[in-house]
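Work Package 3 (structural annotation) set out to generate three-dimensional models for the target panel prioritized at the project kickoff. During this period the team completed the workflow that converts sequence records into discrete structure tokens, so that structures can be stored uniformly alongside our sequence database. As a representative example, we reproduce one entry of 440 residues exactly as it appears in the project archive.
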Amino acid sequence: MHHFLRSMNRQILRLTLPNIITNITVPLLGMVDLAIVGHIGDATHIGAIALGTTIFNLIYWNFGFLRMGTSGLTAQAYGANNTDETLRILVRGITIALSAALLLLALQVPIAQLARRLINRSPQLIALTLTYFYVRIWAAPATLGLYVLKGWFIGMQDSRTPMIIAILLNIVNILFSLLFVMVFHMDIAGVALGTVLAQYCGLLMAIGCWLYKYGHLRQHIHIKESLRWDDMKRFFHLNSDIFLRTLCLVAVFSFIPFISYHMGDDILAANTLLMQLFTLFSYIMDGFAYAGEALVGRFIGAEDEPSLRKVIRYLVYWGCGLTAIFTLLYFFCGEWILGIFTDKREVIATAMSYMRWTIAVPVAGFAAFLFDGIYIGATASKAMRNIMFIATAVFFGGYYLLAPVLDNDGLWIAFLLFLVFRGGLMWIACHRVITTKSSH
């Protein structure tokens, strides 16, 4: 028994640690672009990169279902030792990713026009942002293809390959962006082109890794069989639920900076800083959530209910331990951590007046992250979607009830309620959802 528990923890950490490293490299793409432009341009260039990166984050966040849907289904097929089905899922995912990418390329002008209206700033800022947008949009096929391949690798219990790809991709991005900006003097278009080429290099690396590790499975790939309408329908149904759930997330996380902007520059700066602490916690917890996707899906596929229940229990133990660590860290070192992000004392002072809410974020939010991974592994997308609808309604209802009286405090309380309802309802419903899925 003791050996089994050690083995379970080892499996969780084997999948978690590479995922955490991969997660930390994700924002580096935008940060690298920002750092290079910060040395060659003025504030308008920096603003254009920040806006351009935000546009792509909003676009690609909505396609997160390509990774999540692929990982849950693949993990279940892997657990059931159904090699043919793991490959059919990969073909379906790649087909949808490329179709979506072609749609984005076809709609790039309307998307740019919408962005132009929303930016509504100086003509120079709009021109630079759209220059960046029109170059970087051509990375869409590589970016969405990588989503599917990352999800497939995770479903196959392989989190090391996505980590290696993410690290190499960022190194290539830095080299290309420096080359185009410093040597060829291509300005902001060079930064975007560096990112585009890095994404395609990442895709080629992912294909190379697939051929090296799984190339012997090529004879199991049957395109026509993979794209049968009934199977595609299930894939679409699962992904449409995850898409709607992600839309709710985008609505909440877009509303926070939007409403902070209307509360004034000090509040916007303070909330932006405090949300960095939420993001830091989320990178760690998402690593465990990805491990949950892989292991829960695998044990459901293998119809191994004792291991399924144990992995859920151990994920919760890890979540509680990390929550205690981050709560203490933010309580004792919060001001010092904020000082890493800015040296503006007045901004830090404003942020510290709301720090008590950020200290509560790990306690309020850890279950939301962990059970996201558990539900994705169980492909319980309908339950995830419905719970997210409720939590989002609580957020907006809470904000509009509390903000007139409490201002920014009201916004933070609404955000904490959103996290508590999201994680709490998934935790409460977990037994029923998992029992239903594992008995199929």
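The chain has a mean pLDDT of 90.
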